[in-house]
């Protein structure tokens, strides 16, 4: 596939699959159990259809939006993903720099291959930090590092009390560092560009744990197997709220009542997410709880999982989401063409959002609301109580 034939996120997915060894691509692509959740995350967007408005001046369109009280170029965030260095050398930095150029935030994962401090030194964009709580003392140390390094927002991930049953990774025996079995070595030989990058730059490490602190190897192993602190509860959330003085988001919610309580406990907003289908295979899509969560919280509701088109993003925004976090979409660009690929995917999605705005008769974010959509069969009812979103469904 030549660069001239790349027109969609799916095209970048195919390029990524060609460049990456099967074990690494499966880590990027795979979901939990039978992977029905992956398909559901994509199919759920068909529950809503656009209802365009005509004879509106859309000659000039403005995608600027306000996310957590800050004005940014478009309502997107590059979400937290781990082991990005296995997809492309210095993958975290490439994603962060692309986000900065696009005028949107980047969320560094606890499972990053670049440390909290190193990313802040090398990138001056709006940096957020995503926290996995494995050990409370380690978590506190990381939060304080992010605070001192100038990160503006803390994202607590709550949906990994135990690891999702990811059969692709189990069959491939995927872990870091990799086991160099004959099969793995043969696969590397069949993907020479990836292998040469690995030889030049070395095996990526979980940089936030490469220290003399508290059994680093044990913590890295726990993170790889998602052995999180399963005792983390509402009281622990209050402890974290007291520790972090800036914006705090709680990620991994699929229940509007949980979202409402997070706000009551001091969170500044929530991120609806089913972890991209990687944790519980039969979970609902975040889109299916978006309307109710917006109505019950009265605070910023962000969302991720399954977004591949600008039209997907516009649907979520019309239903009240303040921003959409990108996961695999930008990772496909990274794995295919590095930093340039991330730039291209973001530009593609921006153009897609802009085109959708023009097609449905919206000139800016302020004119986008639920009246732009019509439920198609199984979509949830709009009768979920008061909402900060303008308009009601016909």
TrEMBL record:
Which key words tag this protein in UniProt?
Flavoprotein, FMN, Oxidoreductase
What PROSITE patterns does the database record attribute to this sequence? FMN_HYDROXY_ACID_DH_1, FMN_HYDROXY_ACID_DH_2
Q: What EC number(s) is this enzyme filed under? A: 1.1.99.31
Give the record's GO CC terms: plasma membrane
Q: Name one GO molecular function term.
A: (S)-mandelate dehydrogenase activity
Pfam families on file: FMN_dh
The similarity comment for this entry is: Belongs to the FMN-dependent alpha-hydroxy acid dehydrogenase family.
Q: Which named protein is this?
A: (S)-mandelate dehydrogenase
Identify the species of origin.
Pseudomonas reidholzensis
């Amino acid at each position: 596939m030549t660069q001239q034939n790349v027109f969609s996120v799916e095209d970048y997915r195919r390029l990524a699959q060609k460049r990456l060894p099967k074990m690494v691509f499966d880590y990027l692509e795979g979901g939990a159990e039978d992977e029905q959740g992956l398909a559901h995350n994509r199919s759920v967007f068909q529950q809503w259809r656009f209802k365009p408005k005509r004879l509106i001046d859309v000659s000039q369109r403005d995608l600027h939006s306000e996310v957590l009280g800050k004005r940014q170029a478009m309502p997107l965030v590059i979400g937290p993903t781990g082991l990005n260095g296995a997809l492309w050398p210095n993958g975290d930095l490439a994603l962060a720099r692309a986000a900065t150029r696009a005028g949107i935030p980047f969320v560094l994962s606890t499972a990053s291959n670049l440390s909290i401090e190193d990313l802040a030194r090398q990138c001056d964009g709006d940096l957020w930090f995503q926290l996995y709580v494995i050990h409370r003392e380690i978590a506190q140390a990381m939060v304080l590092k992010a605070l001192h390094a100038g990160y503006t927002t803390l994202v607590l991930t709550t949906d990994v009390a135990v690891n999702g049953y990811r059969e692709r990774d189990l069959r491939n025996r995927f872990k870091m560092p990799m086991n160099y079995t004959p099969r793995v070595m043969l696969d590397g030989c069949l993907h020479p560009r990836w292998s040469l990058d690995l030889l030049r730059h070395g095996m990526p490490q979980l940089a936030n744990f490469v220290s003399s602190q508290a059994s680093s190897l044990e913590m890295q192993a726990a993170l790889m197997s998602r052995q999180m602190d399963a005792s983390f509860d509402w009281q622990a959330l209050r402890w974290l709220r007291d520790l972090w003085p800036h914006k705090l988001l709680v990620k991994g919610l699929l229940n509007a009542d949980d979202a409402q309580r997070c706000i009551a406990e001091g969170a500044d907003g929530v991120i609806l997410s089913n972890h991209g289908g990687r944790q519980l295979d039969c979970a609902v899509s975040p889109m299916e709880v978006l309307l109710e969560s917006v109505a019950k919280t009265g605070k910023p509701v962000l969302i991720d999982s399954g977004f591949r088109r600008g039209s997907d993003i516009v649907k979520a925004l019309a239903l009240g989401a303040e921003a959409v976090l990108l996961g695999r979409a930008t990772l496909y660009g990274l794995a295919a063409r590095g930093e340039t690929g991330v730039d291209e995917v973001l530009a593609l999605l921006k153009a897609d959002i802009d085109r959708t705005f023009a097609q449905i008769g919206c000139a800016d974010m302020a004119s986008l609301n639920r009246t732009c959509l019509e439920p198609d069969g199984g979509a949830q009812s709009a009768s979920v109580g008061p909402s900060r979103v303008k308009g009601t469904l016909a």
